[in-house]
């Protein structure tokens, strides 16, 4: 059995079918997740090329999910979106597509314009997000956006000069409709 | 239970799915469901008598860590809210050491992993109001030092836990193709009488590997594998999974009709 390998029989924790925690299996799984999601080395014994291909596939899938939650952000990058997001996310494990997109947008704040900036501003006034834990709904807030001011009061977002928009608190931190459209369903 | 041909419900194709006249079976990603107010289109399907199966993707049954109680409770709440006959999840893990993989990862085919899976499936089943079906995943790589064949590993897991099998025909095809094996050999080693239903999907070949993307048409080889499976033991239902690059309605209908033809089930279009 290879070192750091399959977390095989007799792992450090000595789990049984009674459900005891197997520290050897846990460590082996963590090493694989680190290789897949945060740029860690591929553990011994694996087909490293295949693991890298799988990891890249996950990055592209994440890019697609973020594009559905943050359509204006993704659209602002055009055909470069997948590559830009994949490069940024390669060593950043996912926090869910809503937060991933938000983190990406904040990291690229300077370059955002038009709809992408408006999309970020809308999120910023609806949710309080510290960048480390799940966003929480704000009670009321206002943010300057291109072309005006976005104001949130009693659950509704109004961009002065723009359409009225609102977000509902979702079970998993991803706004309703985030997979199907703008995510600010009326 | 007879489910027939179904299609995975997604917000993008809710109109198409809701308009299928013969549909008696659909599936929804459990993590996208708000049990207090599920999508009205899903409730409408339920009203029509269609079975709506919550399909979890983030429980991490194969993780060394115990499944999260709130995730199990959510799955149970989805089943209650949708009047589901069963729920399904994966033979996989999706996080470790507090890090999300962002995808379903394979477990090692070892005694240790079998023990962890068994414990997590038992914990989950204890809280669910309905049966649980578990789905072996498609993977581009395997762990070293396997102690079981895939068939023996899954058979023992089902025996230990009394769970049902969600057999993804496209995953069987993808794994066999990427390993250079014959997919029919795995069918012959699985307890097919425990299959609750099957998944069917299309993928793409890239760089010499077949990726099960759910974004392309179902290949002829996968349809042929459906026929091979049904010649051995016909499962209660086949569900088409499509997760992007949605084709025109005519093509979606043709996909469902092809699955019906390959399985000998009634068309739902």
UniProtKB/TrEMBL annotation, chain A:
Residues 161-186 are annotated as: Disordered. This is SCO6045-like C-terminal domain-containing protein. Residues 26-108 form the SCO6045-like C-terminal domain. The lineage of its organism: Bacteria, Bacillati, Actinomycetota, Actinomycetes, Streptosporangiales. It comes from the Bacteria. InterPro entries: SCO6045-like_C. Pfam families: SCO6045_C.
UniProtKB/TrEMBL annotation, chain B:
It comes from the Bacteria. PANTHER family: UPF0276 PROTEIN HI_1600. This is DUF692 domain-containing protein. Pfam families: MbnB_TglH_ChrH. Coiled coil: none annotated. The lineage of its organism: Bacteria, Bacillati, Actinomycetota, Actinomycetes, Streptosporangiales. NCBIfam families: PRK05409.1. Transmembrane segments: none annotated. InterPro entries: MbnB/TglH/ChrH, Xyl_isomerase-like_sf. It comes from Actinomadura violacea. Gene3D superfamilies: Divalent-metal-dependent TIM barrel enzymes.
């Amino acid at each position: 059995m290879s070192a750091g390998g399959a977390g095989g029989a007799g792992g450090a924790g000595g789990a049984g079918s009674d459900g005891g925690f197997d520290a050897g299996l846990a460590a082996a799984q963590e090493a694989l997740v680190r290789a897949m999601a945060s740029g860690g080395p591929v553990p011994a014994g694996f087909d490293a090329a295949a693991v890298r291909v799988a990891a890249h596939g996950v990055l592209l899938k994440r890019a697609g999910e973020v594009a559905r939650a943050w359509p204006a952000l993704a659209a602002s990058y055009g055909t470069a979106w997948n590559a830009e997001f994949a490069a940024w996310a390669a060593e950043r494990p996912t926090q869910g597509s809503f937060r991933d997109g938000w983190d990406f947008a904040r990291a690229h704040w300077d370059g955002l314009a038009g709809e992408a900036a408006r999309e970020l501003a809308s999120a910023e006034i609806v949710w309080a997000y510290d960048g480390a834990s799940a966003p929480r709904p704000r009670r009321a807030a206002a943010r300057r956006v291109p072309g005006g001011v976005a104001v949130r009061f009693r659950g509704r977002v109004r961009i002065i000069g723009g359409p009225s928009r609102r977000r509902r608190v979702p079970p998993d931190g991803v706004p309703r409709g985030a997979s199907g459209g703008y995510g600010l369903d009326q | 239970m007879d489910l027939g041909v179904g299609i995975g419900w997604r917000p993008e194709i809710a109109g198409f799915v809701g308009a299928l006249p013969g549909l008696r079976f659909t599936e929804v990603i459990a993590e996208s469901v708000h049990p207090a107010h599920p999508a009205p289109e899903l409730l409408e399907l339920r009203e029509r008598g269609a079975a709506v199966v919550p399909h979890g993707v983030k429980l991490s049954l194969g993780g060394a860590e115990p499944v999260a109680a709130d995730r199990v409770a959510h799955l149970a709440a989805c089943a209650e809210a949708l009047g589901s006959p069963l729920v399904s999840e994966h033979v996989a893990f999706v996080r470790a050491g507090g890090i999300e993989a962002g995808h379903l990862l394979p477990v090692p085919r070892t005694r240790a992993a079998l023990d962890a899976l068994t414990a997590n499936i038992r914990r989950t089943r204890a809280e669910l109001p309905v049966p649980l079906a578990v789905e072996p995943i498609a993977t581009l790589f395997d762990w070293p030092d396997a102690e079981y064949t895939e068939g023996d590993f899954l058979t023992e897991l089902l025996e230990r836990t009394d769970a049902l099998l969600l057999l993804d025909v496209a995953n069987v095809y993808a794994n066999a193709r990427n390993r250079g094996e014959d997919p029919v050999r795995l069918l012959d080693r699985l307890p097919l009488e425990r299959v609750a239903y099957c998944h069917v999907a299309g993928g793409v070949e890239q760089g010499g590997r077949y990726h099960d993307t759910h974004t392309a048409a179902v290949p002829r080889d996968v349809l042929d594998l459906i026929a091979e499976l049904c010649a051995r033991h016909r499962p209660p239902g086949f569900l088409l999974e499509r997760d992007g690059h949605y084709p025109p309605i005519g093509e979606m209908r043709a996909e469902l009709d092809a699955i019906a033809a390959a399985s000998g089930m009634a068309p739902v279009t």
